[in-house]
Amino acid sequence: AAQRLANKTILITGASAGIGKATAYEFADASHGEIKLILTARRLDKLQLIKDDLIKTYPAIKVHIVTLDVSKLSTIAPFVTSLPSEFSDIDVLVNNAGLALGRDPVGDILPQDIEQMFQTNVFGLITLTQTILPHFKSKNSGDIVNLGSIAGRDPYPGGAIYCATKSAVKSFSHVLRKELINTKIRVLEVDPGNVETEFSITRFKGDVSKANDVYKGTEPLIAEDIAEIIVFGVSRNQNTVIAETLVFATNQA
Ligand code: NDP
Fold first, then answer.
1. What ipTM, to 2 d.p.?
2. In 3D, which of 98, 130, 101, 128 has the Cα closest to residue 113?
3. Domains of the chain
4. Of 42, 63, 110, 131, which shows the fewest CB atoms inside 10 Å?
5. Ligand 1 centroid to residue 14 C-alpha, Å
C-alpha cells in the first residue's frame, strides 16, 4: 500500500472531523508520511490542529489546509485554481463533506435544511468533481471517492431528504464510473452504516442526548473503520476498483 500511495496528492473535503479527519491520518499512516494532503472544511482552526499534529508525527508529509465550504458552489473553482503549485496535481479526491439536519416527517422538514443538505451532499460533491475531472482526464488517472451511506440504499422514515441526497450520490457515482470505464480514472463509493462522529450532534442541532440515543445499546463503527476502507480502496492495484462498499458495525441490522 505504501508504494502505491507514495507521493500522491490527496484532497479531502470535510477533513476537520469524523471520517474526513480519520482518513487524513490513515493516508498519512499507510504511506509512512510520504504523501501530500490538502485538507479542507469550514473550520480552519480544527484543520490547523490536525496539520500541526500530522507534521509532528510524519516529518516527510506535506499538508495544505484551506477553508472550503462545498455548499458555496461559486467558491469551488477559485479554490481549485488557487492551490499552491506543489499541491495542484491532485491524484485522489475524497468527497466526504456531508451532513444530515433533523429527523422529521416530510411535512416538518425546514426548507433551509433541505437546501443545506442538497447543497452540501449533492451539489457541492458534483461541482467539485466536475471541477477536478478535466485534470484527471488530462493525465488519464485519478481516484474519486464518494461518501454515500446506508441511507442511500435503505431509506427510513424521518430521513427523506438525507436519504434522497445519498441516493443521488449513489446514482451519480454509478454513472460516473460507467462513463469513465475506458480510462484509468476510478470512482469508489463507500457507504457506511452507523459511525459515531459529530454527525448525530449536527443532525440534532447540538442536542447531545438525542445524538447519544442514536448509538445507545449498539457498538457503532468509529471513523477510523471507514478511513481504513477508503485507504484500502485507493491503494489497490490500478486495474481494481472497489466500486461500492457497504460497511456496517457487526451488530447493525
Ligand atoms: P462529521 O459531522 O463528524 O464530519 C462532517 C465533516 O463535514 C466535518 O469535517 C465538517 O467540517 C464537514 N462539513 C460539513 N458541511 C460542510 C460544508 N458545507 N463544506 C465543507 N465541509 C463541510 O460527520 P461524519 O464524519 O460522520 O460524516 C462524513 C461523511 O460520511 C458525510 O458525507 C456523511 O453523510 C457520511 N456518513 C456518515 C455516517 C455516520 O453515521 N456518521 C453514516 C453514513 C455516511 P466543518 O464543520 O469544519 O465544515
1. 0.99
2. 101
3. 2-247 (3.40.50.720)
4. 110
5. 6
Q: Which residues line ligand 1 (CB under 6 A)?
A: 13-14, 16-20, 41-43, 46, 68-71, 96-99, 120, 147, 149, 192, 194-195, 197-199, 202, 223
Q: What is the pLDDT of residues 14-24, one digit of tens each?
A: 999 999 999 99
Upper half-sphere CA count for residue 144 (Cβ side, 13 Å): 30
Q: Which parts of 86-222 fold into alpha helices (H)? A: 111-117, 125-139, 160-179, 199-203, 208-215
Question: Is residue 156 among the annotated active site residues?
Answer: no
Nearest CA to ligand 1 atom 46: 42
Nearest to 37 by CA among 24, 49, 48: 24
| Structure confidence by residue, pLDDT tens digits, 30-40 | 999 999 999 99
pTM exceeds 0.95, yes or no: yes
